Structure formats: structure tokens, C-alpha cells
């Protein structure tokens, strides 16, 4: 009876300790809270850059944005940049009037991709307001391939994340998979032997 | 071959023992497993289809194989881990008073526990690859980055290691029988479940740790409950004597699990909805897809609770008298609803709130 009582005390304590150990880091799911231009907005002229604002800081890796014009062509220019909770990208200069849509896909802090579209219309047939090039340089951290700290080396339009030195992971995965297969084989053989012995 | 024939000659089991040992197809009910998996797949696919994000123009999106493959593999992972935990728990539920009668059942539980752990490990590996592929559509999945940068990647790898460890301990148990303590097996399988909630949503709330602990309790409670019922429904359904001894113990466990799982589940769902900017709470239950899933799961939990109460109060007295009951059918029914809840749960962990 005493043993049971001790066990009843020790097990929950051990579980709680394990839970606290495992749950230290904070993860969260980003939610789009605003954008410039706003969804459904009608603008006189194309802005120099388009910005999305999220409720929490955005991971710079894996962030992608694209601006698609009325002719189906792409109008974004430069690379996606992240500054705290905002993500932005520059827009190419001669932008005709018509309906544009910003497509985005960022990876939330908890590892889930967030995808969405912002639609807006440009009425004035003209040039980008402001200096489009200013959007690409600047203080914010440019999204860079993970593992390579200095940004700027990647050519514009390059995928935001490139494969790092991941060869060893595949080796590890293959080894683990074969280990699993070996275990299964041994188990099934053991089972057969036992059954034929019975 | 020679060794088996040599071994075959000396033992002369009594015919009675042989018939009870033999596992004829009728003696190994497949319905519980089939119900659980089919319902889970159905719920996972429908919920994924309902909540699939729209294509964003100009952005490469993962293929449909990833969109649907990932929830399905995650479902397999969750169910296999659940089965591994439940089957490891079974010896504790059976008790050790009467090893002669419980040993055949316990041996089969050990065997299936190892297989479940292996499926768990394999599903976790595939899940890692698919999750990495989901983050970099149109490219080779970059697993190293996924594991190094994203906590859910680490969670999956830790879970894989525990699945392997669980399989290893399970193999020892297959070899040496109940000398390998059941507590150890339960502990290893339970620890393997802990990293899984990290791969789901978490809030950025001040009381973040509290909601994480609630999520851990949710997963462990649900796994012990469902896994225990799987073990009973598969291995004990035709052993009325053992069922009479085991079901009351399981029933107590299930009651605690019901309380923990429903409280922590509602708590977490409401916290996530409350903390989502741009949606007001009671309304967001109906206006967001995340809210629909929470409502669906609450309804399913209610049905499961009713079915559990039915087994506990209507069937258990008869089972304890060892009379013939419809336990098998009710257990399959309850497991099917549990499968639906698992399917919805897998999609809940992936769906953006808005």
C-alpha cells in the first residue's frame, strides 16, 4: 500500500518535470494583421513596395512574396525582406493599371506555412511612386538562405531557402529506416519460429 | 527447419491449451483496428480538404501528395504511438496475479507493441521528410534545415528516437517476457509522445508553459485512453474471464483520461481562439475553420464520453458477472468515433486559425 502511495506521488512529479524540460521554448502561429496596400484597395499609383504585417515577428527563412499583375506577369523586384513583424518586397517600375495580387507564404514560428493573397487595384497608368530600388537595400535583414549569415550573395529571384549541407541527414534517415526494417524482420522471424515451435 | 522439428517433438501440449493458444482469424478481431484507422483517415482527409489554404498567385505550393500525405502520415504516427502506449499499458491493466492465464495475452501484446513502435518510427521519419518538403515547395526537401531551425522538426526526430527505443525495449520484452518491467515500456512510449505537441500549435501567451503542459496532458490522456481500449478490444474481447478483471481497472483510467482530455482540449482550443487577433471569441467558433474543427472535436468527445459511460454503467456489471455482452460491438463503435477525433486532431494541429 505504501509502495503504491509513493508511486502515486513519484510518477506525476516525474511527468511534470519532464513536461517542464520539454516545453521551454515559445512557439507561435503568425496571423496576418495588416498590409500595405490593404486587401481590396484601389490605388492611384503603384507603391514602391508592398508590405505585410503579422501579429508576431516573422521568421526570415522560408518567407516568400510575389506580386502578380493584370497581364499575369510578375512585378516584384529584389528579395523578400523581413523587419520584425513586417515582410516586404520591392515592386518593378513600369506597372500598368489593373488588378494586382500579392501572394505570400511565410513559415510560422511553430513551423507551419501560412499562405494567403492580398488583392488590390491600380488605376493610374504610370510609374512606381518613390524609388523602387530603395526597397531592396536598407536596414532590415534580408531573407537569406539558412546557414549563410551574410545576405546579398544570392542573386535576385533566387529561392529564399536553399538546401544546406543536408547529405548526412539522408544517410541518417536511411540508416534509421534500415534499422526499423531490421527490427521488423527479426520480430517477424521470432514470431514464425515461436509459432512453428508451439 | 531442423531446429524447429527437433523442438516440435518434446512439447506435448494438452489439446485444451493448444486451442486457446492458437490464434484463428476469429480470435484476432480486426474490426476495432479497421474502424479506428478508416474513421481516422476519413476525418483527416475531409478536414484537410475543408481547411486547405487557397493557392497564392506566384508562390510555389506543395503538391497534393504533401497536402494530403502529411496529415495521413501524422495520423498513422499518432495511432501507432497510441497503440504502442496502450499495448505497453496492458500488462499493468491485466495485473500479475494470474500469470498462467494472462501470459498468452501479454505475449501477444508485447509482440504488437514492438510492431506498433516500428510503424511509429517509420511514420515519424516519413513525416519529417514531408514536413520539410512542405516548407520548400518545388525543391528537394531540406531536412537538415528543417530539423535545425524548426522546433517541430526536432520534436519529430526526438519522437523517432523514442519510437526506436520503445521498439528496442519491446524486443527485449518479447525475448525475456514480463521480466522487462511494464513500467519501463510505458515510460519510454509515454516520453515519445511528449515531443509531439511541440509540433502542433502553441500560443504566444504569457502562460505559454501552462498551455503546453495542458497539451502534453491532452496527448498523453488521449493516447492512454484510446490505446488501452484498442488493447482491450483487440486482445481481450474473447477472454471473458480476463476482461472481467481488466475492464474495471481500465474504466478508472478512462474516467481520469476523459476529464483530463476534455478539460485540456477545451482550454487549449479556447486559448488559441482567444489569442488570435482580428476575431472575437464566441463568434470565431463558427466563423473560422479552426473553430469548426474545435466544435467538431468537442462534439466527438461528447459522443465518446457517452459511449464510455455506456460501457462503464450498462455493460460492465454484466461483464463482471462474465455473462455474454455486446462489449465487442460497443468497443468498435467507440474506437471508430475515437478515430474520427484523431483525424480531426491531426488537422487541428496544422490549420491556421484564420
TrEMBL record, chain B:
Localisation per UniProt entry: Cell membrane
InterPro entries, per database record: CopC/D, Cu-R_CopD_dom
Membrane-protein topology: Multi-pass membrane protein
Primary location: membrane
Region spans: Disordered: 1-29
Annotated GO biological process: copper ion transport
Full protein name: Copper resistance protein CopD
Superkingdom field: Bacteria
GO CC entries: plasma membrane
Record keywords, A-Z: Cell membrane, Membrane, Transmembrane, Transmembrane helix
Cell membrane found in the keyword field: yes
Transmembrane feature ranges: 31-52, 72-91, 112-133, 153-174, 186-207, 219-237, 253-275, 290-313, 325-348
Keyword ATP-binding: no
Stretches with biased composition (Basic and acidic residues): 18-29
Record-annotated Copper resistance protein D domain positions: 245-347
Amino acid at each position: 500500500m505504501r509502495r503504491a502511495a509513493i508511486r502515486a506521488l513519484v510518477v506525476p512529479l516525474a511527468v511534470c518535470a519532464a513536461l517542464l524540460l520539454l516545453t521551454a521554448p515559445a512557439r507561435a502561429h503568425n496571423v496576418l494583421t495588416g498590409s500595405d496596400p490593404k486587401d481590396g484597395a484601389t490605388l492611384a499609383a503603384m507603391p514602391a513596395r508592398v508590405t505585410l504585417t503579422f501579429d508576431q515577428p516573422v521568421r526570415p527563412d522560408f518567407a516568400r512574396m510575389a506580386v502578380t499583375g493584370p497581364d499575369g506577369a510578375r512585378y516584384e523586384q529584389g528579395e523578400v525582406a523581413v523587419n520584425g513583424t513586417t515582410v516586404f518586397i520591392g515592386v518593378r517600375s513600369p506597372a500598368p493599371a489593373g488588378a494586382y495580387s500579392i501572394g505570400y507564404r511565410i513559415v510560422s514560428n511553430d513551423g507551419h506555412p501560412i499562405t494567403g493573397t492580398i488583392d488590390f487595384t491600380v488605376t493610374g497608368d504610370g510609374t512606381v511612386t518613390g524609388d523602387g530600388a530603395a526597397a531592396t537595400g536598407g536596414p532590415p535583414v534580408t531573407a537569406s538562405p539558412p546557414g549563410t549569415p551574410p545576405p546579398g550573395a544570392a542573386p535576385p529571384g533566387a529561392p529564399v531557402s536553399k538546401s544546406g549541407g543536408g547529405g548526412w541527414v539522408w544517410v541518417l534517415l536511411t540508416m534509421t529506416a534500415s534499422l526499423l526494417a531490421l527490427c521488423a524482420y527479426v520480430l517477424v522471424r521470432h514470431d514464425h519460429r515461436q509459432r512453428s515451435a508451439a | 527447419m531442423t531446429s524447429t522439428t527437433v523442438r516440435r517433438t518434446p512439447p506435448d501440449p494438452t489439446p485444451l491449451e493448444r486451442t486457446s493458444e492458437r490464434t484463428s482469424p476469429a480470435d484476432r478481431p480486426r474490426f476495432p483496428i479497421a474502424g479506428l484507422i478508416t474513421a481516422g483517415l476519413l476525418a483527416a482527409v475531409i478536414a484537410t480538404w475543408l481547411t486547405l489554404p487557397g493557392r497564392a498567385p506566384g508562390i510555389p505550393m506543395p503538391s497534393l501528395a504533401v497536402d494530403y500525405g502529411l496529415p495521413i502520415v501524422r495520423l498513422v504516427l499518432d495511432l501507432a504511438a497510441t497503440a504502442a502506449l496502450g499495448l505497453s499499458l496492458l500488462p499493468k491493466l491485466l495485473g500479475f496475479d494470474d500469470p498462467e492465464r494472462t501470459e498468452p495475452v501479454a505475449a501477444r501484446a508485447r509482440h504488437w507493441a514492438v510492431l506498433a513502435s516500428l510503424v511509429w518510427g517509420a511514420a515519424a521519419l516519413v513525416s519529417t521528410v514531408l514536413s520539410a518538403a512542405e516548407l520548400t515547395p518545388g525543391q528537394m526537401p531540406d531536412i537538415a534545415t528543417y530539423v535545425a531551425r524548426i522546433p517541430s522538426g526536432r520534436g519529430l526526430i526526438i519522437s523517432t528516437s523514442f519510437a526506436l527505443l520503445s521498439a528496442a525495449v519491446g524486443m527485449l520484452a518479447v525475448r525475456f517476457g514480463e521480466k522487462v518491467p511494464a513500467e519501463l515500456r510505458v515510460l519510454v512510449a509515454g516520453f515519445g509522445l511528449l515531443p509531439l505537441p511541440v509540433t502542433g500549435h502553441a500560443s504566444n501567451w504569457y502562460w505559454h508553459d501552462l498551455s503546453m503542459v495542458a497539451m502534453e496532458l491532452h496527448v498523453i490522456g488521449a493516447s492512454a485512453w484510446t490505446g488501452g481500449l484498442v488493447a482491450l478490444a483487440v486482445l481481450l474481447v474473447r477472454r471473458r474471464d480476463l476482461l472481467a478483471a481488466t475492464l474495471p481497472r481500465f474504466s478508472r483510467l478512462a474516467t481520469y483520461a476523459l476529464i483530463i482530455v476534455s478539460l485540456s482540449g477545451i482550454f487549449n482550443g479556447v486559448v488559441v481562439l482567444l489569442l488570435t487577433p482580428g476575431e472575437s471569441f464566441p463568434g470565431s467558433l463558427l466563423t473560422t475553420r479552426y473553430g469548426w474543427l474545435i466544435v467538431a472535436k468537442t462534439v466527438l468527445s461528447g459522443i465518446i464520453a457517452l459511449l464510455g459511460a455506456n460501457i462503464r454503467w450498462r455493460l460492465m456489471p454484466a461483464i463482471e458477472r462474465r455473462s455474454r455482452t455486446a462489449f465487442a460491438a460497443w468497443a468498435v463503435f467507440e474506437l471508430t468515433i475515437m478515430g474520427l477525433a484523431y483525424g480531426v486532431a491531426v488537422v487541428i494541429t496544422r490549420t491556421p486559425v484564420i
